[in-house]
Each structure stands twice: as C-alpha cells, then as structure tokens.
Amino acid sequence: VLQVQKKNYREEKKRATKELLSTITDPSVIVMADWLKIRGTLKSWTKLWCVLKPGVLLIYKTHKNGQWVGTVLLNACELIERPSKKDGFCFKLFHPLEQSIWAVKGPKGEAVGSITQPLPSSHLIFRAASESDGRCWMDALELALKCSSLLKRTMIREGKEDMSTTATGGEHSINFYSLLRAHNMQGFQFNDSDQFKDPDLYSDKSDREGEQDHEESDPEGLEKSEESDSDTSERQDDSYIDLDPNENVRETPYLEQSHEELGEAGEASQTETVSEENKSLIWTLLKQVRPGMDLSKVVLPTFILEPRSFLDKLSDYYYHADFLSEAAVEENAYNRMKKVVKWYISGFYKKPKGLKKPYNPIIGETFRCMWLHHKTNSKTFYIAEQVSHHPPVSAFYVSNRKDGFCLSGSILAKSKFYGNSLSAILDGEARLTFLNRGEDYVMNMPYAHCKGILYGTMTLELAGQITITCEKTGYSAQLEFRLKPFLGSSDSVNQVSGKIKLGKEVLATLEGHWDSEIFINDKKTGTMETFWNPTPELRQSRLTRCTVPPEEQGEFESERLWQHVTRAINNKDQTEATNEKFILEEAQRKSARERKAKCEEWAPALFEQDPVTGEWHYKYADTRPWDPLNDLIQFEKDGWIQTKVRHRTPMVTGPKRKHKQSDKPKSPESGCSSPEPDRQDSSGSERHKSKHNSRLRKKGADLSELQSAIESIKQTQEDINRSISVLRSRAAGQAEGGSFLQQRDYAIIIFLIFLQVLINFLFK
C-alpha cells in the first residue's frame, strides 16, 4: 500500500508542475491585464504591461508579451492601499518580512529580464489611471492572494485524473486554483531552465531512492513518524472551527420581537410630571445625596425605571445596522464617513415615553439579540455582559461578518447629582471595524441630563461633544448635542450640530434635531440637503430584532433575571417591584461577601480584559473578512458567535490596541458581584468551550508577555526619535552658526587685504 501511495505522490507532483507551467504560459488563463505605472528604486515611474494570472503577476515592457521584465509570486505577498497626492490610485504589493517577491526565471525560461529602471526586491508600488481601475486591480489581486488557502489537497484519490496538456484555458484555471488551495505555492521557484523543456524531470529521483532506503532500513521509524504526524495534525486542528457543511447547525433559537416602544419626536416624550406620592420618595432620596456626588451606589426608586436592562438599552443603536452594511461596500471614503455618522445618529430617536432609566445590570448579567438583514440575507449579532459592578462596566460586541463589519467597546456608567438636575455619563468608546478594509472608526457617547428634580417639569435631554475618527483615511466627524437654553423655545430642544473633516479641512456641516430632521451643507458645492429624517416610512423599514425566548435563556440573562421586577412595573405595583429588586441586589451582595472571604475575583464568561491596555475584548471575536467560497453562515450558540464553513479555517482575532490612560476602564473589584451563573450545555458543547477557554488563557498569557515587550520597544523607539529630533535641531543651529562665522571670516580677510593694499600705497 505504501508503494502505491508513493507512486501516486510522484504522479501528483508531476501533474501539479505541468498545471502550473501550462497556466503561466497559456494566454487564455488571465485574470486581468492592463497598463500600470510602477515606481522604481530611483523614485521614478515606469509604465509597464501587467498580466495577472492565478498566483502570479507577470510584468512586460510591451502589451505583446514579448519583452518580459519579471514575475511576482503572490503566495507570500500582502496588499494595501497607498495614499497619494497625485492623480490616479496607488496600491502597494509587498512581502511582510521584506523578502524577495520575484521568481528566479521567466515563463519561457528567461534568466534575465528586459532592461528597465531597477525595481525593488521586496515590494512594488503601482499607480492606476483612476480610482475605479485601481479598485478593480486590488479586488483581482485580493482574489489571487486568497485563493491559495481555501482547500487542502489529499494525496489519495480514487481515480486517476486526465493528464492531457491540451485542456482548455478554463480547465487550466480550475486545476491551478486547486493547486493553489493545496500547496499555497510555497517555495515555488524556477531553479533550472530544463524544467520548462521537460516537466517530467520533477520526478525527484534522489528523494525516491532515499525514501526506498529509509523504508528498507527502518520501517518502524516510518510508522513512528506517521504517528507523530497524525498527532501533530490533531494538535493543529484545535485552532480551527471544524463543522461539517452537511451537519445541521446547533444554534440558539431566536424569535421576532413582539412589542417595541417608540417615543414621539420633540420634548413631549421626554418630560414627566411626578405625582405627590413619588415626590415624597424623591425627597427621601435627596436626603442621602449632596451636589457633586456619584449616584452609582444609591438605590433609585422603581417608578423611574424603564422595564429593561441597560445592556438591552445599548442595543438600540443597531436597528439601522443596514447603514453599516452599505458603508462597508462604499468605495468613497468620504461617503463611508457620512454613512457611519448617519448610522450613529439613527440610534437616538428610539426613546421611551416619559423619563425612564433602565436597570443597573448585575455583575455577570448578559444579554444577546440579533437583527435580520433581508436585503443581504445576513444577521447582525449583539452580545453584552456586565463585566464589573464597582465601577459599573458594560462590555459589548456586535458582528456581521457577511456584511463586513464588527463593533466592540465598553461603557463605564457614572452619574452626578447637581441639586435640581443630574447627569448620567457614559464614559468609554466604541470601535467600528470594516473587515474588508481594515478601517477602525472610534467614537464616544453623549451624556443624558435630567433637570427639574426639585422644581419644574422633569425633562431628559442629551448633551456632549462627540468625535468619530478614522485614522487610516484621515476623515473625522464632530457632533455636539446641545441642551435647551433657559429661555429657549420648543424648537431649541434636542438640537445637534456638527461637521465632517478631512484632516483640518471642513468638508460639510450638519445642523438640526437628532430626533427629527438634520440637514447637511456641502462646503465644496454649497448645496444643502436632508441628511437624516426618521419619517414613518423609515421607522417601518427598521431591521427586525429577534430575542432569545425566556425558556432558552440562562439564569443570568437580562430578561429572565429581571422578569419579576419587569412584571411588577408593568402591573404598576411599585411595592412588589421594589421587593423583587431588593432580592436581586441582596443576592449580589451575599455572593460578593462570599468571594471576598475566599479571596476570589469575578471572571467574566464572554469577555476578557487586556492586562496592558485595560480594554475589554470579546473572547470569541472573529475579524476575518467574509469568504463567500468557504464561509456558509454565521450563527450564535451560548453567547459564542461562530461561522459554519466548508473547510477548516484558522481563527484570527484583531490586535489589541493601545488607548490613552484616561480611557482605560478600571479593573473590576471583587467586593460586589452576583452569584456565578451555571452555564451547562446539554448538547455537549461545554467541554469544547472549556477546552477552548483554557487554550485562550494560555495564549492570552503569551500575548500579554509579547505585548509588554512590544510596548517597551515602542517606548525605546520614541526615546530614540526624541533624541534624533534634539540632535537635528542642534545640528541646524550649528550649521547656521557656522555660516555666520564663515561670513565674518570673509569680512575680516577682505578688510585685511584692503588694509594691506592701503599700506603698500602709502609707503610706496
């Protein structure tokens, strides 16, 4: 059997080589071909004819393919868009480790290419005539780069495939794609011109003789090596999601939301007249506080509570997540920023009737839901968890890989009392990522301001300065939510203004009301148009939200956890609501005391904190771009957002990003928490999750050490840069000083010469 396998191995080797060579030389197998300008090592541009084939990029001096310049191997290359001040569109093809990207020989065995300006060895910078042409080239190159890792070739086949070299170009393309998927074109080089004359010379006679000698001398060693290989493959498979495409997905069942409360536009839905009974409760509450005090530890009366958790409240921003789906495929960076701003504003007009505050989540509490995108046939998943109680930190993660975006962040909720008013401050930021572009949009949140507590009508408003920035594109947006002035009219309620900028240049301004109409004024064209207006038609087009049925929820999921409090509030039974709320809070305090006695700290189930940056990250985040050839469906099970795939693919998580010190959430205290939830999965997935968690903890320790080393290197680089700047300034000062001294010396020399001439004239 082993001899047959070796024979099949050698035949596969020959056939793969023939396919590769025939694909390169076959003129019908072309992905794309056009003129591109390429920058040489001398910083000058040369116009060359570029032919993209599966796995390789052939460069010629003329479009007749007669003067070969070079062949770029795409298997180890990375592709990135490159900013440019000139016309056209630039992109860069490079080796991440600065190794050579060139093949040794040409498609016809050429050892030396046509004479042109010298080109870099580890990268190439291209310039297309227009942005549309450049985008087409980048899409084609992305296809050629990604198609090498879709499938794995098996060396054992039931039938022998046709080895004819007279196949059509389409057949060559299909065979070559399978070759790319199998071998990733690793180590592909033209080392001998004879390869082009007779591909059968790839029989590798010396290797074959060595294998036979090894087989005869040590058959037991071969068996051991095979066992070792199988063990290695099993260990490697641990980093993959292995799902059979024919197997039914075991996912969490979701039901469409039956009821949703939408407040009216304007001030009417944001005011509330407090009854005499409730006023006495407020006065009792105010005796416990003083101006400037943080209200996070103060127990609030239940009549001002909105019957849902704060984790649920944070999901209001994704009823128009289809705006993000549109932004992800938008080619123009300015239009992408406008769509992101439009989505951001769309999250505020959904408000409860009256002045209501959601429940303060209990530590360990979780909430999950999803939205259906009918246009793209995709789903947006939302996962949130209360990761700390003192300080109260809520972490959340949103993912729609099929539409190309994800969002993560954490919010530290703080509240301040000012006498007749109080403010609920949401300290933290969210990071929106477009997976196919590698762009991050970082944004913060406005604060809620409630006035009229002691006298006047209780009114809730939004206020604060908001920034949305994309470091990669250079675009940013600034929004200001403004409070109603003391003598302002009803038209001055819920005002918002802002501007969209590229660097320091203002491209457009925004003005209007965040719960009604907002206008945008384009500074270049001078035109003003409606930017946002939540009309009844738009409200009807909101995405459908689906939630988990109560019987499928865990013990610490929001709806099930607060069900008795919610029922009492809906029945207007404030006494029962207060009692049920006290039971939950007391259970949390008891659990905190027990952990404190055991010197234990709370460990969140779905999120983990970066020890370096202090950021909270979703444990199962998958930030790979969606691969339509391999990815089938995205689903969620027990808080774990997963993807069903045709073939095993490695899980990739985004890099941990460094934030300012002031933005770091404080580490959770172990003094206040709730009972640890019992998350057992009867389907058997718990064992897989525990194994995955242990592996993640091990990787997290290694990553933290690596992150520490990187931070120290960055600090050293910053010190070096500062030293270089100081040296440059000193050198510039010395140069100016040297120039001055040199001029003075010239003046002295001229004066001495003149004096000498004068003396000679006088004594002559």
TrEMBL record:
InterPro entries: OSBP_sf, Oxysterol-bd, Oxysterol-bd_CS, PH-like_dom_sf, PH_domain. Residues 190-249, 644-703 are annotated as: Disordered. It comes from Myripristis murdjan (pinecone soldierfish). Residues 644-661, 688-698 have a biased composition (Basic residues). The gene is OSBPL8. GO terms for molecular function: cholesterol binding. GO terms for biological process: lipid transport. The keyword Nucleus does not apply. It is found in: Endoplasmic reticulum membrane. GO terms for cellular component: cortical endoplasmic reticulum; cytosol; endoplasmic reticulum membrane. The chain crosses the membrane at residues 746-763. Its main location: endoplasmic reticulum. Residues 29-146 form the PH domain. Belongs to the OSBP family. PROSITE patterns: OSBP, PH_DOMAIN. Keywords: Endoplasmic reticulum, Lipid transport, Lipid-binding, Membrane, Phosphoprotein, Transmembrane, Transmembrane helix, Transport. CDD domains: PH_OPR5_ORP8. Residues 194-211, 221-238, 676-687 have a biased composition (Basic and acidic residues). It is a single-pass membrane protein. The keyword Cell cycle does not apply. This is Oxysterol-binding protein.
